[in-house]
């Protein structure tokens, strides 16, 4: 098969696949490394590589899930708080093999939109590499991410833009 045909198949086959459809299997470390490393080939002006990813697996991932649920609980008015949604956050994380937080480091050298766009292209590379390796994934941007900067230890010029969920399919 020609490279262009393979690329076309991967691009057209890319889909957001959600934790409810993930298998209870670990993603091999070499595959995870390949997925994350593919981000480094995204175009970025002035070579700022503004994306910042943190990989959560195992107990760290479960701790992140509990933290997200607590953010929901602590930032939701009691009259609209739903225990089911609280528990669903924890369950979604439990069904996920790996979560990668997506943050942007604003260099001050470029307009912010360019660094956000470069980060999105880095995530697209991870999407395509996941697809090629039969790993389901999706980028989620729940309102809770605006409360993650401290948890992630982000600097003042950095901001979290989402969570990238991955699981075997």
TrEMBL record:
Residues 12-168 form the Nitroreductase domain. It comes from the Bacteria. The keyword Protein biosynthesis does not apply. Its cofactor is FMN. The keyword NAD applies. Keywords: Flavoprotein, FMN, NAD, NADP, Oxidoreductase. Belongs to the nitroreductase family. PANTHER family: NAD(P)H NITROREDUCTASE YDJA-RELATED (PTHR43821:SF1). This is Nitroreductase. It comes from Kaistella montana. The lineage of its organism: Bacteria, Pseudomonadati, Bacteroidota, Flavobacteriia, Flavobacteriales.
